[in-house]
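Objective 1b of the project was to move from sequence-level analysis to a structural picture of ligand recognition. The entry below was assembled by the postdoctoral researcher (A.K.) and checked by the PI before modelling. It contains the amino acid sequence of the target and the SMILES of the bound compound, magnesium ion.
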Amino acid sequence: MLKFFLPNEHVKSIFDINPESLFKKGIKGIITDLDNTLVAWDVANATPEITEWFQQMKDHNIKVTIISNNKMERVKIFSEPLDTPFLFSARKPLSQAFKKAAKEMKLEKEEIVVIGDQVLTDVLGGNMAGFYTILVVPIVQSDGKVTRINRKVERRILSYMRRKGKISWEE
Ligand SMILES: [Mg+2]
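Corresponding predicted holo structure:
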């Protein structure tokens, strides 16, 4: 059961994930969370660095789909200028949106990584749907109400992982 809460990798930010490291794993597609993974939850648009990261993936033929539990307006305003597919109100950790994204990218599960900042939505959802999961440190610590409750549970899971030696660095 616990294995569903453990990411395959834990990195400090999205910028630690690059085409070269993905190719080594045979990865051709990315399903990524938006809030606190790509930008802070209260930032409407992509930063120049994020725009560059998306361009880098596009240049290497790595497909990216944004899936977010947030509402249409937020996800659409962010994603459209990046010219990247997106799914909103995704109801992560349920599997449906993850599977839909994979199908639309025309890739196998083994060819996709799921990236996000939350164990209980992104990692749990990605793992249950059968993907390789990468947890990133949230861009900001402040959050919406529901997320705050999730974070409490998450801190306990992360401290468990740290005790078991699954996380080697300190935040
Ligand atoms: Mg998030």
